[in-house]
Amino acid sequence: MAIKRIDESKKKVYQTLSQPIKDEIEALKKKIQELELGSLRGNAEIMKYKPFLIANYYVDIALRLMKMNNLSIKVMDLKQGEVLENARKNIYTAISVLEKLVGSEVDNDLSGSDERLKGTEKMTPYRKLFLFKKIELALKLLQEYLEDDPKFKYKILEMFSKFAVVVKNSINFKEFTSMSPMDPNYRYYNELLTYAKELLRKCADEYREKYEVSGHEVSDMRKAQEYLKALMRINNVLGYYDESKEIKKIIEKWSSKMEEDLKAKEKRK
To answer: I need a surface site. Which of 23, 54, 86, 188 has the fewest CB within 10 A?
Structure first.
């Protein structure tokens, strides 16, 4: 494939317009470094929320990298794969930072969420929603830029599924189930719960779709069922038993489908 030649004048315009964005990225990296090295240790209030702050900065870096790529397309008609990969890595890191705080297991015990989240009470459901919606935006933008590159399709799904687990594990179910509907946070807790349930269902459906297009890989169907089971556990804790029954039926239906596919595969051997 011939390497696309870029006019030098366009390169200079891009360099000039992208420099302020690069400066912003460096400033964000410095903030992350300060937090990671503990130079803000004297500020106990900030240190409690360090993982949320660091994750936020990594997402901000990713959004700025995608802004640079967008600028490159407009000025030079050139999509920058390296810049987009760097953006992907920053989003992945943001999710990983939060995983260390709230847990990375999709089947985490919901009753133990208050212990995992102890000391972060001022990271309210509203603030969590703000951060999570920013992460989702970054993931969706990245997906749009990489939609014509099939090798990234399932990398995005992996990241999105990790993100869904983080959202679910960030919810203090013990606090919510004992909260008065008059509490100012009650509305945002409801929104956060609805959001978590939507993400879990989306991941289940996408792994179910992947199962069909990737040659009936059992691991994909297992993952799809894991996300449905997590959704079912949430509904049970909240007392939504009718919804749980419907999800259980879907899990059973998918299990039957997988068994049929395995039998058919054995017959073809």
So the answer is: 23
Residue 123: both structure tokens together: 């990271």
pTM of the model: 0.92
**Rounded CA separation 39/48 (Å):** 14
Segment 171-217, tens digit of pLDDT: 999 899 899 999 988 999 999 999 999 999 999 999 999 999 988 99
> Which pLDDT score, from 0 to 100, does residue 109 have?
77
Distance CA 157, CA 212 (A): 15
Tell me how far apart the alpha carbons of residues 245 and 255 are, in angstroms, rounded to a whole number: 15
* Per-domain boundaries in the chain: 10-103+115-170, 174-186+198-263
3-state helix, strand, coil in the chain (%, to 5): 80, 0, 20
Coil, strand or helix: which one is 261? helix
- How distant, in Å, are the alpha carbons of 42, 86, 95 from that of 31? 15, 18, 18
Task: State the DSSP string of 34-78.
Answer: HHHHTTTTT-HHHHHTHHHHHHHHHHHHHHHHHHHHHHHHHHHS-
Residues 142-158 as b/e (b if ≥16 CB within 10 A, e otherwise) read bbebbeeeeebeebbbe
Residue 175 corresponds to which tokens in the numbers above? Answer: 């606090």
